[in-house]
Design a protein that fits this description.
mainly alpha, two-stranded antiparallel ribbon, 4 strands
Length: 192
């Protein structure tokens, strides 16, 4: 093996250069290594070959083409902006129309409820009784409910007395007398 120069040794410091060097000098019947400096270079005479001068844009004709391309891009960008603006405007207009229709429907509902005489009657209690003050309303319905509740209390006292008589409550068998009196209150009077 020949000794390497200082430049060759310093050139192999990177991993990529070292691997390329090893591939270039490997033996054992492997595929021959071809050192390609630029893989995207094209050979002269090839259909895809172009000279460096032709690669650059030059001449009045090319500038006209470039100007037309720039104008087309600008027109396309402006059209895209206008389409987006029109779409956003339509969306915003429909949103405000929906808000306006919702407010009109609310106003119409309020007017309809104010015009209906039966609408206010729904805001009454289910029974003519005030659960806060625990008093009956001073109406015929309140008097009727009070009489109904009094009749329930009266029937419970009659039932209590009936059960006491059947079970001999208050009867003293030693002396054979009723020691605890069983009374039935008078029935409540119906409202006038």
């Amino acid at each position: 093996m020949e000794p390497r120069s200082r430049d060759a040794r310093h050139g192999l410091r990177t991993k990529e250069a070292l691997e390329k060097e090893r591939l270039r000098h490997r033996t054992g019947g492997y595929f021959r290594y071809e050192d390609i400096r630029n893989p995207i270079d094209v050979a002269k005479g090839c259909p895809s070959h172009i000279t460096s001068r032709e690669r650059m844009n030059h001449g009045v004709f090319n500038e006209e083409i470039n100007f037309m391309e720039r104008e087309a891009k600008k027109y396309h960008r402006d059209e895209t902006t206008e389409v987006r603006r029109a779409r956003n405007l339509d969306r915003e207009e429909s949103r405000w129309r929906a808000i306006s229709n919702q407010e009109l429907a609310g106003d119409h509902r309020v007017r309809r409820m104010q015009a209906d005489p039966m609408m206010g009657r729904k805001n009454v209690t289910g029974q003519p009784y005030n659960i806060v003050s625990q008093e009956y309303d001073r109406t015929p319905a309140g008097a009727q409910l009070e009489h109904h509740d009094n009749m329930i209390r009266y029937r419970s006292k009659v039932r209590t007395a009936s059960l006491a008589m059947r079970n001999h409550l208050g009867f003293n068998p030693i002396i054979g007398e009723q020691t605890v009196g069983i009374t039935i209150p008078p029935p409540p009077r119906p409202p006038p």
